[in-house]
């Protein structure tokens, strides 16, 4: 496993979408910051689901969220418009091999085959949404990014079992879109 490559890549790679919207690289959110926040959100959401008698492994959901963008440390962060036009799945799978990390995490996250992977995906979206709110407060024009996440977040949260804790999830966002 190329731990140093993973760590340096994640800590230093600023997420592309923010820079494309005018956020300077010096204050841009890195892949590591994003994945850390997504992991914390995944853990919190999982615990809330567990409190509501849903069979879920909070640690596994957090690990999936923590590693969901690991491929970007090798490939770089693709802008959203590019990922809508190409299938980066093979490249990401190869990146997991290069880093020596379990492809099983990548496959599970991408296939959305478990509740934990669905929690990790929601947490990824929530993290990006929350970061957009922070940048808007700082005066950056990232409203387009923020608005693009609203329908998907609403769709996920309206589905079972997330609908059981929708007030909790929307409470994390504290925004009028929800």
From TrEMBL:
SUPFAM superfamilies xrefs: HD-domain/PDEase-like
Enzyme class: hydrolase
Hydrolase is among the record's keywords: yes
A Pfam match: HD_3
Keyword Oxidoreductase: no
Enzyme Commission number(s) from the entry: 3.1.3.89
Alphabetized UniProt keyword annotations: Hydrolase, Metal-binding
Start and end residues of each HD/PDEase domain: 27-138
Gene Ontology MF annotations: 5'-deoxynucleotidase activity; metal ion binding
Cofactor names: Co(2+); Mn(2+)
Catalytic activity line of the entry: a 2'-deoxyribonucleoside 5'-phosphate + H2O = a 2'-deoxyribonucleoside + phosphate
CDD domains listed in its UniProt record: HDc
Family matches, as PANTHER family: 5'-DEOXYNUCLEOTIDASE HDDC2
Self-association and partners: Homodimer.
Protein name per Swiss-Prot or TrEMBL: 5'-deoxynucleotidase
């Amino acid at each position: 496993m190329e731990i140093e490559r993973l760590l340096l890549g994640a800590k230093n790679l600023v997420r592309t979408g923010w820079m494309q919207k005018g956020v300077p690289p010096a204050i841009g959110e890195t892949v590591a910051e994003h994945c850390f926040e997504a992991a914390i959100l995944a853990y919190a959401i999982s615990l809330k689901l567990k409190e509501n008698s849903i069979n879920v492994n909070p640690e596994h959901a957090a690990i999936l969220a923590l590693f969901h963008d690991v491929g970007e440390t090798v490939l770089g962060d693709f802008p959203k418009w590019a990922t809508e036009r190409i299938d980066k799945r093979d490249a990401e799978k190869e990146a997991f091999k290069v880093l020596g990390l379990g492809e099983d995490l990548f496959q599970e996250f991408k296939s959305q085959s478990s509740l934990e992977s669905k929690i990790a995906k929601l947490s990824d979206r929530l993290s990006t949404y929350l970061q957009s709110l922070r940048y808007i407060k700082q005066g950056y024009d990232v409203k387009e990014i923020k608005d693009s996440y609203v329908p998907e977040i609403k769709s996920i949260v309206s589905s079972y079992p997330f609908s059981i804790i929708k007030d909790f999830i929307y409470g994390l966002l504290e925004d009028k879109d929800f």
